[in-house]
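protien #1 (seq + structre)
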Amino acid sequence: MEELGHWINGKRVKGTSGRFSDVMNPATGEVQARLALASKAELDAAVEAAAAAQIAWGATNPQRRARVMMAMVGLINRDMDKLAEVLSREHGKTFPDAKGDIQRGLEVIEYCIGAPQLLKGEFTDSAGPGIDMYSMRQPLGVAAGITPFNFPAMIPLWKMGPALSAGNAFILKPSERDPSVPLMLAELFKEAGLPDGVLQVINGDKESVDAILDNPVIQAVGFVGSTPIAEYIYGRGCSNGKRVQCFGGAKNHMIIMPDADLDQAADALVGAGYGAAGERCMAISVAVPVGDATADALIERLIPRIEKLKVGPYTAGNDVDYGPVVTKAAKENILRLVNRGVEQGAKLVVDGRNFSLQGYENGFFVGAHLFDHVTKDMDIYKTEIFGPVLSTVRAQSYEEALGLAMDHEYGNGTAIFTRDGDTARDFASRINIGMVGINVPIPVPLAYHTFGGWKKSGFGDLNQHGPDAFRFYTRTKTVTSRWPSGIKEGSAFNFKAMD
């Protein structure tokens, strides 16, 4: 059986802690690899090596660092199918979904080619007599990223690309559930010209996370995962004086107005609610039709679409709509919440609880579920299910629908489907959620805008990718410069002289 370790100083190394976890194949339920879990000592040694390598990397001019990103774009495109196959095997998502995962990460690397422009400071000529002022953006030193299982290529690339192109060394702690693609990406960065030691990939569990948060050399930490862990990492990291950005859970609402194209809305809900088995922080998990007539017509359209969804392993190719969830525990939690929804009075109009796939009975497959008449006091409404479950909450007015999304503790993404421009504009202006779609069900911004949620979906002042990423991974230094032509009698070098 394959044994996976870490990426340290430009090569794969075995773990020395003696602790391991299993890497599963979600489609079969079988163990496919053993993963070494790093100790605090291993993490600290990797950080020390990264700090040493960062000095020369930080002094490398931004254009040369950008050339590494340019080379990386070509290498990822070259190995796209290879990366996607490994990603699908460990995560379970379909091959097209896996390629989409990689593609969205690749777009951030493309954006990072513009690092020389993004790192430019500001200049003021003659701020005072013979005085100039200018600012510069400088790397923090060593930064770290703790990334989730559901996007094992995209989110590591979102973290690594801006941090490295800004001149930092980077420690990546990917999910222990699907660690192979991050290790492969590290190999590609080396091939692209990244110096050894600048990027380290440390696999581990809570011991490694705590070691990252407590290590005084690490200046910044980025995290994506559940809200309870986001709160823990944000609190502990900030208390240790680090710059921290954490992105947590979501319960994304899609409001369907009476004037919406209901066929378009139903297609959007099926794709956004069930794609990737619902294991996306930007998945739509709550449909909010306005008015009973709208709700009835929407449910009528949703049922046949959902019942036609094909669930299976990624090896079935394009004939599968979504694959298994990532672990047996995840499957059991989803079904527990579905049962809880039934107990609390929601109407289960599409019931996937008895789904079983012939030949893959031990896999972690979950059938599609659709609830109607869900109320906001129910667990399936309050909780992020992270599975193929769509809840329908009927609203009697636009204001009631708007209030549902605004009152929920999560504020990651939301959408509205309508033909009315005034309603859409009002919605975009008033909603207290970080990413908004208008007739777009999954409003994930492109790489040159920032990605981040509000309320309990995001912690920290700066978001992922876009200009915010370069602000997060650098600090600003402002210089006030004076070059007098000669020392003159009575010269005064003080604040008043600058007026």
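ok now protien #2
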Amino acid sequence: MPSKVDPQPQGKVTSLEVAALAGVSRSAVSRVFTPGASVSEKTAEKVRRAAETLGYRPNVLARSLLTGRSRMIGLVVAYLDNHFYPGALEKLSNALQAQGYHVLIFMTGQSDRDLDSVAEEILDYQVDGLILASVAMTSGLAARCRAMGVPVVLFNRRQKEAGELAVVSDNYGGGRMVAKHLAAIGCTRIGHIAGWEGASTQRDREAGFLDGLRAAGLSLHAREVGDFRPETAQEAARAMFGGADRPDGVFVANDFMAFMVMDVLRHELGLRIPDDVAVASFDDVPTASWPTYDLTSVRQNADAMVAATAQILIGSIEDQPVAVLEPVQVELVLRGSTRR
């Protein structure tokens, strides 16, 4: 006898079939699979059980055509080398997914042309909102988003333009804390290795740092630009500390560069940290606490930044009032790189 063959499925299971098996209306099935919709737990359980039995999966794309919402968020990031961003972006994705949104991540360079090119592509996906992390919004992108009704939130960047939505740390206050600390431990020749000068984070951190030095009766002894890149930060360290008139303290604009700077100071130039030079930085990524670096750093509150970003973006998408946000508070974490 020929072997028995299981029948092939005749087509995709529909919500009407799920409703019939569960003994509920078709609209009840729709509500169960619509994030945020009101439905009783008893009905939801019956619908999910019927859907599992029939192998039903809701058609998200079809639903987006009906509702005008894709429930997708575009996330644009310039680089992930900085250890602050991978952890923060993972938390941000989880926070948005918990609210029923899905995240599309796109990588771009720091130039306006790179961003506009990627943004054109990501907007073609009909995203409900856009988050720009470590990049600034161009005027062309702003106009395109406004025309499409797509809200944009800047994460860890700001431009101080009317109506912009931006979540940042108190970069100015953090820079000022570092200056006060370096002066308090007796540093008098203090240098600064700056990040990418097109970034608001860099400008605000340096502004606070310089004001903090002035408040302590000091002036900046030396300055180099590390551009938030490891190789450039190493060159900056060699230029700043290779001569006789080197600083006895330095503020590096972020931890990622500071690690490179510390390696050059110790392993190439033979300087002792903190005896010959005290090093402080910004971000307080997990590596900063490793014994290898033991780096004094300004801690950004990634959890608070993520919560605020998700709140104002979803609020904007769903036409809810959005409060003006103040910079998220930071704290200076003292470690061995400045402990004298």
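Residues 24 and 43 are 8 Å apart (CA to CA).
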